[in-house]
Amino acid sequence: MLCMMKPWVVVCLCACLVCARAELRSPVVLAKNTTSQVVLVTGATGRTGSLLYNALKAQGVDVRGLVRNATKARERLRCNKCDPSEGIFVGDITQPADLTAPMVGVDKLVILTSSYPLQYPNGTWYYAPGGSPKEVDFEGQNNQVIAALKAGAKQALLVSSMGTTEPDSYLDLLGNGHVSFYKLNAEASLMGSGMPFTIIKPSGLVDDSGNQRRLLVGHNDDLVPSQMMTVPRADVARTLLHAVTLEEEHSAGLRFDLSSDPAGPATEDFAALFKEARSWGGQTRPSGRGKHSGARCISFHIASHAFVPWCARCNTEGVYHDATACPLADEECTAKRVERAREADELAGEFHALYDGEDDQRFAR
Ligand SMILES: NC(=O)c1ccc[n+]([C@@H]2O[C@H](COP(=O)([O-])OP(=O)(O)OC[C@H]3O[C@@H](n4cnc5c(N)ncnc54)[C@H](OP(=O)(O)O)[C@@H]3O)[C@@H](O)[C@H]2O)c1
């Protein structure tokens, strides 16, 4: 099945699985235009979130962090009390009430919260209760946008993901979470909110050093996959840093894919990068399909042909993604979705088996 997956998806999946402990390893090169604005980073104890939070702090920006755990914040964000007096707010984005206090007076919101798939030792995938893509990436994100709108924020910046043009992709099916579907819907919600937005859709995230690679921008998953498509979290953080600190006109109204060329040279001019993203000037490939990497590829068929694509696109209310009715009764559709999820989990188990020699611990967060 790896053969059937887009290379960057494989990297993305691997990156999801590795518990990164090197968040601060890659220093972010700072933008020059520091302003007096108040910036709230949610998911601030996350891997990209902590890089951005610390970089904004280092630049003297009045930055706040929304975190779930003050102890983790102390470790990653170098706070002492790790409370509102230091701009650290403990809260859960699925609880709208938790978002009121951190949003007061915020000019820019950077959304770096995300759901996260977990894996049982047998290789099957699941999301923790309350941590599904629907709850976190869609509803939790909408809560943030609504709170930011109420607070009068001027811009919301979101890190989503590449791969949302491919229905029922491997990532989408993990744990039956439909993460790409919900992330795409969350993008649409933000774009329709009336708030100036910047949406960055990275390829597979890695923890390599930032400021080494040439950053590539594109649209609709059309970047040329010359090799495994990855981008360091540190470079995503740099891109966000510049989007936040440059004048709004550079990045507002932009939604683009972000990847990188390890051969460099390192991207320095982010105003030019945003301009390129605005002009849809990235490289394109007509086929819409990338070459797979031969590495670790074992030839077996993805069972997706056995799936029921139209059914998977129905929600639990029996409605298609495009809001038309599903052709099967709800129960039949649900039954098929359950079956489909089981098959997807079995495939996940096979995927897991490919990583022979890998410690199961590595797959736990
Ligand atoms: N992995 C990839 O290859 C890949 C590829 C493309 C795009 N992306 C996307 O890029 C973004 C950044 O990825 P990352 O790996 O840096 O993220 P990450 O380390 O997984 O961080 C996610 C953050 O969200 C927080 N969070 C989750 N649920 C929450 C809730 N209910 N309330 C408050 N906070 C919550 C987590 O809090 P805790 O710190 O308390 O856990 C964590 O700080 C994500 O949107 C991800 O989906 C990833």
UniProtKB/TrEMBL annotation:
Keywords: Signal. One of its GO terms (molecular function) is oxidoreductase activity. GO terms for cellular component: chloroplast. The keyword Signal applies. It comes from the Eukaryota. Residues 43-245 form the NAD(P)-binding domain. Residues 1-22 form the signal peptide. This is NAD(P)-binding domain-containing protein. The lineage of its organism: Eukaryota, Viridiplantae, Chlorophyta, Pyramimonadophyceae, Pyramimonadales.
